[in-house]
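Hi, can you check this record?
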Amino acid sequence: MTVQEIMKKMVLYSKENIHDINHFIKVYGYAKMIGECEHLASKEQKILEIAAILHDIACPLCREKYGNTDGKRQEEEGIPLVYDFLKETGIEPETVDRVAYLVGHHHTLTDIDGLDYQILIEADYLVNVEENGYSEENIRNMLKNIFKTETGRMLLEAIYLP
């Protein structure tokens, strides 16, 4: 299954939730751009792109089950959903494992263990700044302490910092 087919499947999975669909498409766009600009290997780029599409796969379940989309619950609930979503897609098991790991850690800002993970954090944050109206202080803190890629840092500064 291609990344584009996964995106189509995720749109259908999102059941007309325009916010969720727009969110993962924007995160995907930033992740794809940052990954390409940072010269990820093609396999790592594919993992990143799939993880960006699926990173919030648990949001509908969390809304129904808990009444909110708390990040830690998204991480916990997302892992089995990724395995279920990607079964019978022909995607290599090690790729599915890494995607599930990234989805299960996309709100965890410590022990970032790969460039794919780093970029997913940065791409999601770039979208969340707009959607959640984060303060300039929050943005500057993330720039100083979390953002590591040259491309992610450039985007954060160019878009959100005067």
User: Anything to note?
Assistant: The chain has a mean pLDDT of 95.
